[in-house]
Amino acid sequence: MSAATQRRPPAEHPEALRGNRRRAVKPRRAALPPKAKTDGDTVATLRVSTYNIHKGVLREFMGLRRVTRIHELRARLHELDSDLVFLQEVQGRHERHARRLEHWPDEPQDVFLSRSPRLRQTFETAYGRNASYLHGHHGNALLSRYPIIGLENRDISDHALEKRGLLHCVVKVGRLDVHCFVVHFGLLARSRERQLDALIDWVSNTVSAEAPLIIAGDFNDWRNRLSDRLCREIRVVEVFDAMRPQLEFVQRAAYFARDRQPAIELPEALALASAPRMVRTARTFPALVPWFRMDRIYQRGFRVNAARVLRGIEWARLSDHSPLVADLELVDPGA
């Protein structure tokens, strides 16, 4: 394990927050239906989330002052009841923020986020450092309710001005090893193409074709130039694309009803369901008014039961990206 990659067990004790004037965060209901329960030993249902947390710091809507959002962000993440959380722009250390920002955590953000404010839930964490500077470092992280039995972080930076990395973790879910890749690609199109090359090569040479696989993160691929190639070469499916057959079934049922009752008018949403991709559903950036498809969840070896972008002013206060959440059903092929 390199110095830039760290695995941390679940936290056991609460940290002492500096100061006691922070207002309590009211619990909110998650935007997805209740997570399905595991059925015996052969089927596991995982709730997977991906989120670029913008280092837990955001500027106020009306002003230039930076404010700490990491405490509220932690509360909202735990409300999702996710089993695997793929995080980008996680601050491992930042000495300036620690001095200047009120209530800045004393520990790395992945450790801080792994612990529920009420200590009812904890995650194992893995952190991969991407960018280092005089006053700190940041990178990708995975939070897992299942044991993390292997991890590796690789630098895929294409130039000195953008430090990017891929974090690979192996998570033990029952008898199966689930391979998880946390992704954060660059802002330049040619950089993203070369970084995709590195991802495809790593998966092809490391992960068995039969092994369950989840790739999630901030791809910065707002023009959707990478998805088809990624799906074709390593046989993954983007979660919103996997939901399309259900929409087609609903659309066919609606047309059947209309043919029997010509007075029935189809909703506009069903009329648009034949679009080649669910672009509107997966827009995640900017969080206040999502327009670009920056964040993705790709999977192999799962059945997608639900997928959603979490939007609204509550999420826009926490980061410039909106989180994605998907419910995936894993079937043990050896059962």
Short summary of the structure?
The chain is an alpha+beta fold and 335 residues long. It has nine helices and 15 strands.
Topology:
Layout: E1 5-8, E2 43-52, E3 57-59, E4 66-68, H1 70-79, E5 84-94, H2 95-100, H3 109-114, E6 124-133, E7 136-144, E8 148-155, E9 165-173, E10 176-184, H4 189-206, E11 213-218, H5 227-234, E12 237-238, H6 239-242, H7 244-260, H8 268-271, E13 295-300, E14 302-309, H9 313-316, E15 324-331
Describe this structure as you would to a colleague.
- The chain has 335 residues and is an alpha+beta fold.
- It has nine helices and 15 strands.
- Strands 1-6-7-5-2-15-14 form a seven-stranded mixed sheet. It has a six-stranded mixed sheet with strand order 8-9-10-11-13-12.
Quickly give the CATH architecture of the largest domain.
Answer: 4-Layer Sandwich
SSE pattern? EEEEHEHHEEEEEHEHEHHHEEHE
Strand content: 25-35%
- Give me the secondary-structure category: alpha+beta
- Annotation, overall tally of beta strands: 15
Helix content: 10-25%
User: Largest beta sheet: what is the strand line-up?
Assistant: 1-6-7-5-2-15-14
Shape: globular
Number of helices: 9
Full CATH superfamily name of the largest domain: Endonuclease/exonuclease/phosphatase
